[in-house]
Structure to design on (409 residues):
């Protein structure tokens, strides 16, 4: 395995963190053809360790049930839009409830191979719970630096699996360079592995995420025509594009999908870069989305490259539309996804009207995490029902006739 700059192809030593020292580009592992050809013989199944020949580790990756998540054809939302081949890749079925379990498992393996005492990350929630779970499985310590005000459900998960959680005021407010410097100092002082899941800081961890694309191709009769993803920092988006490129190199697919990046209009650094034709993604002064999973002020340049190299597009959605779609996915498809996971589905109508997708194409929406991750949906209704006067256990009781009339409406 070589580690090359994705922009200028400058080679750095294996294990190097941060950006390319020559041009500032995002670093990425590069695997020889014999390793990629082994992908052809891999059957679907649980765990990402079966892809170790195209991952930046040599030792076994701990398994908690990650991977092989369902790829479900839409039963109602797609047909209502004239889409017979709309699919949902439900990453909420991973052990801690999000796609971050894939890179989380890899981060812990990298920490073990580096001889670190523990793993350090900064996270809005999903990365924290994933790394905490896999660190516990591997017998490593875990330190989570957290932005105050994140969903309590995610914080409870990290605590339940033994992480030490420390809120840091404005940890994401000073820009990516300041954040990286802060994390590097803390990690070095504690002898913890810097497991921040973002390629411009750690170019290796996102490699676990590309297994999503391997699984999609294994389930479909060929690659999808369009992949629609929620985008925060951009690792899930860029990693999947890398997976499709590798499968094309290996001769497993002939055609590459178009990659569609979905951000909130209230937190759209990538969206802004695509619209303005910028060479790099600039940080925003602030991010103001209510969708916690993609409420970011900065996105990596690797995501911008994936949009352009795939002939894709970036699209913005309103927070209110995403929450409405989250409810629709639950009531019409039976899937409770987190708000960030609903963002790609919320973008479908807009993409159709713009002519960015055609109705005869195979379209895969990535549902990034489970609904309990950000559980405001139906919270008020659940509280009201729990406090409601119960009906009698007697079909002849007074008031039961009103109950039957209401149910028959």
């Amino acid at each position: 395995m070589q580690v090359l700059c994705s922009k200028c192809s400058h080679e750095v030593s294996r294990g190097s963190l941060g950006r390319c020292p020559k041009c500032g580009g995002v670093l990425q592992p590069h695997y020889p053809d014999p390793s990629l050809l082994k992908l052809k013989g891999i059957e679907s199944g649980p765990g990402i360790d079966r892809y170790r020949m195209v991952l930046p580790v040599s030792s076994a990756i701990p398994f908690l049930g990650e991977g092989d998540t369902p790829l479900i054809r839409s039963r109602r939302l797609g047909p209502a839009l004239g889409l017979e081949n709309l699919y949902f890749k439900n990453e909420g079925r991973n052990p801690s409830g999000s796609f971050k379990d894939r890179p989380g498992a890899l981060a812990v393996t990298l920490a073990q191979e580096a001889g670190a005492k523990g793993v350090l990350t900064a996270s809005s929630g999903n990365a924290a719970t994933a790394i905490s779970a896999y660190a516990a499985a591997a017998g490593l310590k875990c330190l989570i630096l957290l932005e105050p005000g994140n969903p309590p459900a995610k914080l409870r998960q990290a605590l339940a699996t033994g992480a030490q959680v420390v809120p840091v005021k404005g940890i994401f407010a000073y820009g990516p360079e300041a954040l990286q410097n802060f994390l590097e100092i803390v990690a070095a002082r504690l002898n913890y592995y810097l497991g921040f899941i973002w390629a411009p800081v750690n170019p290796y961890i996102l490699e676990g995420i590309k297994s999503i694309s391997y699984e999609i191709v294994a389930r479909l009769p060929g690659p999808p025509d369009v992949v629609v993803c929620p985008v925060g920092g951009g690792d899930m988006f860029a990693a999947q594009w890398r997976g499709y490129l590798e499968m094309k190199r290996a001769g497993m697919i002939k055609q590459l999908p178009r990659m569609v990046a979905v951000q909130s209009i209230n937190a759209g650094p990538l969206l802004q870069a695509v619209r303005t034709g910028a060479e790099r993604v600039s940080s925003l002064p602030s991010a103001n989305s209510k969708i916690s999973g993609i409420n970011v002020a900065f996105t990596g340049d690797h995501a911008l490259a994936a949009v352009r190299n795939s002939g894709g597009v970036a699209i913005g959605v309103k927070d209110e539309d995403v929450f409405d779609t989250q409810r629709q996915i639950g009531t019409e498809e039976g899937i409770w996804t987190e708000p960030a996971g609903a963002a790609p589905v919320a973008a479908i109508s807009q993409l159709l009207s713009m002519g960015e997708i055609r109705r005869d194409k195979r379209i895969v929406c990535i549902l990034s995490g489970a609904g309990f991750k950000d559980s405001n949906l139906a919270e008020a209704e659940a509280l009201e029902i729990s406090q409601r006067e119960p009906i009698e256990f007697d079909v002849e009781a007074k008031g039961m006739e009103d109950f039957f009339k209401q149910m028959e409406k």
Observations:
- The longest strand covers residues 258-264.
- The chain has 15 helices and 13 strands.
- The first helix runs from residue 33 to 37.
- The chain has a mean pLDDT of 93.
